Amino acid sequence: MKSAKTKNWADAKIRDIYKNPMGRDIIDKSLMQMNIPDYLVTNPLTGSLSMKTMATLSGGKVSKNFRFNFARLLETGEKAAAGLTGSGNAAEEPSGLTGSDDAAAAGKSAGWWVDAVFYQIYPRSFADNDGDGRYNLRGIIGKLDYLKELGIDCIWLSPIYDSPDDDNGYDIRDYRKIDTRYGDMADFDNLLTGIHSRGMRLIMDLVINHTSDEHVWFQSALAGGDSPCRDYYLIREGGVVRPHPPNNWTSLFSGPAWNHYPDQNLWAMHLFSKKQIDLNWESPAMRSEIYAMIRWWLEKGVDGFRLDVVNFISKADGLPDGDTLIGEVMGYRGIEHYFFGPRLMQYLNEMRREAFEPFQAFTVGETPGVGLNMSKLLTSPGHLDLVFGFDHLENPGKTRFDEYAYDLNFLKKYLIKQAGILPDAALYFENHDNPRMPSKIDPSGRYCTEISCLLALMLMTLPGTPFIFQGQELGEINADFKNISDVSDVESLGLYKELIGKGTPEPEAFRKILAGTRDHARKPVDWGKAAENQVLNCYKTLIKLRKQRSELTGGKTTFLFIAYKDYFCYIRKGNSALLMECNLGKRKIKSRVKKLTRPAPLYSTYAAPHQINTTVLQPYEGRVYELV
Ligand code: TEU
User: What pLDDT score was predicted for residue 85?
Assistant: First the structure.
């Protein structure tokens, strides 16, 4: 689409919107949510409808404002894609094929991370080295041999910086200081040496969308209008008589996205907690402080970073009000103005050049709300190496706080799509922000061990770079919280207060919190489980297999028998070939591999290879066959 046509996005045809990476992501997501086949959009009849006509058909639900904002996003998508080709043309139509090649074939320079297995440590609940109840850096050092033996190549360490701890360290007060609860810089240096001497790598968590309100920059910004730091944050002057926030955005952690400071007559934006104030990335001085801080850590020898909500850093010019309809669907208002802001690609590129590239540092961005096609742009040369998508974490129509049993058939559908569009994706099922996946799939808990092993198999054999969250390798499941006083996460407590405030009966409000609270993943790892643990053995064996067989890290992927419910089957092929077969449900199902040429059982999450029942797959069983 030529740039002259840009202004016409507000009345573009569905067919053209679908060719735009942003448009395609939004349409794909909506179709998946409603369980509608792609054909509805790709058929010539619907394809020729315009946005305006669709808005009319919606009977007023789709407002003019919505159309305008959607058009703006499409323009961002168009520009992001054009910046890559240098041609002003929109991205080529994404393939959406069911087969895919490795990263190198996709035209990307493959770095060390393509073959690596990552492990996330959440330091406040990982390890306590001497049983004194203090989870710290020394505790982590004490577990390095365990991680090496497991087969880990790189550790991602959640924040350990000095912090008042409103959001478990994701509210940083001093980027260059270790929080005393974890130790000091000497402990950190020992940790880094310990990791490197074992041939592993370390990436740190980089929280640069916001800082703590106790950071000196913010303190200085509040102290006086002539402070150079005033421009470091999204600060607006307020009305004295009837103060109201500068726009209608809401925080992801409930309530308005603005703090009012009556003494200074100022408003400051916070997309997360009231103590996490958003930085103003429009400020070149702020950006160069951030880049200097990044280089400071890289000079110490860290190998890269996980970038917290990095897709939120660029906000739409003028901070316009958020659309009410989008706000209702998403649960918070304003997101269309910052989840892929107008200068996101530019800032990522600048940060790469100024900070990461000179050290060849690795980056993985956390990118909530971004779909697969836009992820592809974010991971294009000159930007990020990998991104964490979110779209596989909930079943269509569900949010994290809904009580339901997650259906793995959706994950299968999503992963097939992902393999076609973004084969070199960051692959993960758990982190510190989500309940334990086996509990989500089987809330009764009966099959959690089997599910843990099945997820291990998928993680180590599907295309992408696997990330394991602490305790996942031990088959950890959700906590048995009894009431709200057992919960400490700032997000959960904010939501609980909001629900009660709206008149939700207490038991119902608590059940919601129990379904989605991030505290499930944050309870201390139960190291007593590490001896003779079936899940741990699965992880060890499968990681070993992944390292022995190059087709698992770089092979071509083909999905088979896609239409069968509860059945997931795929081949990874390089010089040799492996076939994976999974039962995604709790009923026994028929194995279908006999139809193929002489598959030899190599591994099962249930039994030794010679004992594998080749005709039936047990509940949640996963298998690997050698294809000869
Ligand atoms: O998370 C950002 C994020 O959008 C979510 O994962 C978040 O937990 C939730 O879904 C909001 O509804 C990152 C960190 O991983 C998280 O721990 C922090 O709380 C958050 O950013 C703020 O720094």
Answer: 53
CB 252 near ligand 1, within 6 Å: yes
Residue 309 Cβ contacting ligand 1 at under 6 Å: yes
Going by C-alpha positions, the residue among 1, 13, 23 that lies closest to residue 87 is: 1
**Which comes out higher in pLDDT, residue 105 or 484?**
484
Q: d(Cα 71, Cα 37) in Å, to the nearest integer? A: 24
Per the listing, tokens 């198999």 go with: 457
378, amino acid identity = L
Calculate the dihedral angle through the C-alpha atoms of 296, 300, 301, 306, rounding to the nearest 10 degrees: -50
Over residues 531-554, the pLDDT tens digits come to 889 999 999 999 999 999 999 999
Inform me whether the pLDDT recorded for 621 exceeds 90: yes
The CA 241 to ligand 1 mean position distance, Å, reads 35
Confidence of residue 86 (pLDDT cuts 50, 70, 90): very low
Atom of ligand 1 nearest to the CA of 368: 4
Q: What's the distance, CA 548 to chain centroid?
A: 28
Q: 391 C-alpha to center of ligand 1: Å?
A: 14
d(CA 599, CA 417): 26
Q: How far is the CA of 269 from the centre of ligand 1 (A)?
A: 16
Confidence of residue 71 (pLDDT cuts 50, 70, 90): very high
Atom 10 of ligand 1: nearest residue by CA position: 433
For residue 437, the tally of other CB atoms under 10 A from its CB is 25
The confidence score (pLDDT) of residue 242 equals 60
What are the CA-CA distances from residue 65 to residues 30, 56, 71, 73, 491 (Å)?
19, 13, 10, 12, 30
432 CA to centre of ligand 1 in angstroms: 9
174, 215 in Cβ contact below 8 A?
A: yes
Average pLDDT of the chain is: 91
For 534-613, strand residue ranges (E) read 556-560, 567-573, 577-583, 589-590, 599-604
Whether residue 99 has pLDDT greater than 50: no
**Enzyme catalytic residues:** 308, 366
Q: 116-165, pLDDT tens digit by residue?
A: 999 999 999 999 987 888 899 999 999 999 999 999 999 999 999 999 99
Counting ligand 1 atoms within 8 A of each CB, the residue from 157, 211, 213, 309 with the most, and so the one to mutate, is 309
Task: Take atom 12 of ligand 1 and give the residue whose Cα is closest.
Answer: 252
Per DSSP, the residues of 595-627 read: GSS-EEEEEESSS-GGG--TTEEPTT-EEEEEE
Closest approach atom of ligand 1 to CA 167: 19
Distance CA 41, CA 181 (A): 54
Question: Is the whole model's pTM more than 0.85, yes or no?
Answer: yes
DSSP per-residue letters across 148-161: HHHT--EEEEPP-E
How many helices (H) and strands (E) in the chain?
22, 22
